[in-house]
Amino acid sequence: MFPHVILHIGMSLDGRLDWVSIDQGLYYEIAARLAPDAILSGSNTILAADIPEEIPEEYREMAAEMESQPDDTRQLLAVVDSQGRIRNWPAIRQQPWWRQAIALCSAVTPKRYLEDLRDVGVETIVAGDERVDLRTALEEMNARYGVETIRVDSGGILNGVLLREGLVQQISTLIHPQLVGGSSPRSMFVAPDLQSKEGVIPLRLKDFQRLSEDVIWLNFDVINDEIK
Questions:
Q1: pTM surpassing 0.85?
Q2: Which CATH number applies to 40-49+74-147: 3.40.50.10490, 3.40.430.10, 2.40.110.10, 3.30.70.3040?
Q3: What is the per-residue pLDDT across 28-54, written as a single tens digit (0 to 9) for each?
Q4: DSSP string spanning 114-143?
């Protein structure tokens, strides 16, 4: 079965992700409402994240307590990393926010990198030839780990691939009352320009709310008959 994929994005009114002052507390409060089984990120997002090598004692205790529970309900973290760019997997694994880290790789992923992942306890899903076959990889996450809902926490490039391949069913956006402008492709949806209107993705508004500090939460269904 293919999981339910939700893009959850904090952005400016003009769709930019850079230079926006995101309300992180509000972002993750809404993210929790989406109740995902797993988080999907791209390698660029993980490389840009400030992941500490040393975890505060209270967080270590929290993670140990969750691990001791018969049913650890923390999310999985899956990272698309076909080129084997991420090297701080031990630090990623010990974060208390997820119970397991998974690398999504392809046939071109260096074998030594796959061996290193195994050595540090990171599970892998290998799907695709030149790059990760996301449809197959996400179906495998459902089959192997029972993942039914995935929240995408990433930048515009991975969002663009998922949208262009018709793999997204829901879009949750927190629109912050800011304008950034610019001509560089730092928006929430980065993909090659369309050659016709046939590639336009139709949406249906599920609901909307005005939150604190004039942030607007818009929640859309993606109209996509290909995903069953």
A1: yes
A2: 3.40.430.10
A3: 999 999 999 999 999 999 999 888 777
A4: HHHHHHTT-EEEE--SSS--HHHHHHHHHH
